[in-house]
Design brief:
The termini are close together. Helix content is 34%, strand content 27%. The mean pLDDT is 92.
Length: 241
């Protein structure tokens, strides 16, 4: 299975989203309708006296309550702060709740900063476990070059097996502890991808796959399910040859 096969076959759970907020309807509702693949996004007006900070959304899966998220967390996800994997603050940022709840949901309009925030959440798992295999696609060598400080430290201060994939050449110095698979093919260059196997612990497995569109936005998803993560890892290896 290649990355394209994997991307085309992913199917998220049947979810609905209901936003509860004072009138007028927040613009965030329209953004959610356009950005995520769910059965429906509805708006319910709260009493006028309700503070905007008390606004929230409810996610239902297969008709049953799944989660509630404050709208401030969703708004933060629009322009999330970016923390290094070893920064303990990442565990407390509000937008992390969005990442946790919308696992396996297909997103139609992701920005680079949002994908970086999800990537950092996965890299933080790898940092905390400090062992296992982390596979990352950087599309182009320039993208990897910008992340050399992060991956140098991940490799130097853990027992992680780190493999990175790019579709062009790598003519910079080697990164100690990081295996670079250069000239990995067009599929690698078409996707933003990252997968961590949790070193065999299903509580820590996680993966991300997103495809860049012509307008510069991305369509994609992240998964925590162990089997889906393992299939994504195999798809990366097959696509890279």
């Amino acid at each position: 299975m290649t990355l394209s096969d994997y991307f085309d076959r992913i199917e998220g759970p049947v979810r609905t989203v209901t936003v509860y907020a004072p009138a007028p309807k927040p613009e965030l509702v329209d953004w959610l309708e356009a950005a995520i693949s769910v059965e429906s996004v509805d708006y319910r007006s709260l009493p006028d006296a309700t503070a905007a900070s008390q606004s929230f959304l409810v996610v239902r899966q297969d008709g049953e309550f799944s989660a509630a998220i404050g709208l401030e967390a969703v708004r933060e996800f629009l322009e999330p702060p970016i923390h290094e994997p070893w920064n303990g603050a990442l565990g407390d940022v509000p937008h992390r709740r969005v990442i946790e709840v919308f696992d396996s949901t297909v997103w139609h309009a992701l920005q680079r900063r949002q994908l970086l925030a999800v990537s950092r959440a996965i890299e933080t798992r790898a940092w905390r476990v400090a062992s296992g295999t982390l596979r990352v696609g950087f599309q182009r060598s320039s993208a990897l070059e910008a992340m050399v400080p992060v991956y140098s430290r991940l490799a130097a201060e853990s027992a992680l097996d780190i493999a990175v994939y790019i579709d062009d050449e790598w003519d910079r110095p080697p990164i100690p502890g990081v295996t670079i698979h250069a000239d990995s093919g067009d599929e690698i260059g078409s996707y933003w991808m990252l997968v961590f196997d949790g070193d065999g612990d299903e509580l820590w497995t996680s993966g991300l796959l997103a495809k860049e569109r012509d307008d510069g936005e991305f369509e994609g998803f992240w998964v925590d399910d162990t089997q889906l993560v393992a299939r994504l890892e195999r798809a990366i290896q097959e696509s890279a040859g």
